[in-house]
Every structure is written in C-alpha cells, then in structure tokens.
Amino acid sequence: MSTLQLEVVTPDKTVVKETVEMAICPGVAGEFGILPNHVSILSALKIGDLRYRVNGKDEHVFISGGFADMNNNVLSVLAESAEKAADIDTARAQAAKERAEKRLAEKSDAIDEVRATAALTRAIMRLQLSKM
Ligand code: ATP
Predict the structure, then answer these.
(1) Burial per residue of 71-81, b for 16 or more beta-carbon CB atoms within 10 angstroms, e otherwise
(2) How far apart are CA 30 and CA 26, in angstroms?
(3) Does the CB atom of residue 92 touch ligand 1 within 6 A?
(4) CA pair distance 10, 79, nearest whole angstrom
C-alpha cells in the first residue's frame, strides 16, 4: 500500500511523526484530504481535528490552527498547539471552556472577545476529540 509521511510539529514538540495512509486536515476553507503522492499544497488550518489513518485505523489530533505543507510526499503540519486525542486532559479543557464562557458572558470592554471566542472554540474541540 502506498503511504505518506506525516509530521505534526508545535513550537515545543513533535506531536506526530508517522507513516500514514491518508490524512484529513481542518482547512480554513473546509476539510481536505491528502493521499500519498498528492501534489504540493500549502494551506492555512483552523482549530479542528486532524485525522489520519494507520493500518486502516483512524487517529485524531487536536490542532489549534496553523499551516499544512505537502511536499515530496511529506505532510508537515505546523501548529501553535496540538495534542493526540488520547493525550487531551478533559478536566483542563472543561475548565478552559468555563473560563471562556464566563469571560464572554461578562460583556465588558476589558474582555478581548476574539481571544475568548478562540479559547472557547479550542476547549470545545478538545472536549469533542477527547471522547474519540
Ligand atoms: P488552557 O487555558 O487550558 O491553557 P489553551 O487553549 O489556552 O488552554 P493552548 O494555548 O492551546 O491552551 O496550549 C498551551 C499548551 O498546553 C500546549 O502545549 C497544549 O498542547 C497544552 N494543552 C492545552 N490544553 C490542553 C488539554 N486540555 N490537554 C492537554 N494539553 C493541553
């Protein structure tokens, strides 16, 4: 079976470095799939689920947005933060969700709404992926 190399990297660590059968990325304009030997592509990613297949089994990684670069059969995903679904701390994500919801409910000028909304979106996505 043909494969491609997937690397998911954050400023702190390499989260995934594996040979995979395919990957589906959360692109800013919608999800897109990458199969082995896909043409070169560079795309911005949004907060979401990066899915990839190894030995017929789907794996899920939380991505906080970033970039995906497919070149020479290597898919490099650069993200501000990323965790494999199994490594997500559910209690932490729940606390982050509640914090963000509280901030957004305050409706004060001192609240950075864009930042709070992004934190809430990350927390909701982490909670969703932690159940997979
Ligand atoms: P928090 O407010 O809990 O820090 P956040 O969305 O602001 O959440 P990020 O800035 O996305 O956090 O990530 C900071 C670091 O903490 C990254 O290394 C990320 O992988 C890790 N991290 C954040 N939330 C979780 C979680 N629920 N489970 C595991 N690791 C997490």
Answers:
(1) eeeebbbbbeb
(2) 6
(3) yes
(4) 5
Q: Does ligand 1 have an atom closer than 6 angstroms to the CB of 88?
A: yes
Q: In this structure, which CATH number among 2.60.15.10, 2.30.33.40, 3.40.50.2000, 2.40.300.10 belongs to the domain 4-85?
A: 2.60.15.10
3-state secondary structure of 87: helix
* Ligand 1 center–CA 100 separation, angstroms: 13
Q: Model pTM?
A: 0.93
Domain ranges within the chain, ordered by starting residue: 4-85, 88-130
Residue 112: strand, helix, or coil: coil
Cβ(122) – ligand 1 distance below 6 Å? yes
User: Domain 88-130: what homologous superfamily?
Assistant: ATP synthase delta/epsilon subunit, C-terminal domain (1.20.5.440)
Is residue 98 in contact with ligand 1, taking CB distance under 6 Å? no
**Ligand 1 atom nearest residue 123's Cα:** 6
- Reduced to 3 states (helix: H, G, I; strand: E, B; else coil), residue 101 is helix
**Which tens digit of pLDDT belongs to each residue from 62-103?**
999 999 999 999 999 999 999 999 999 999 999 999 999 999
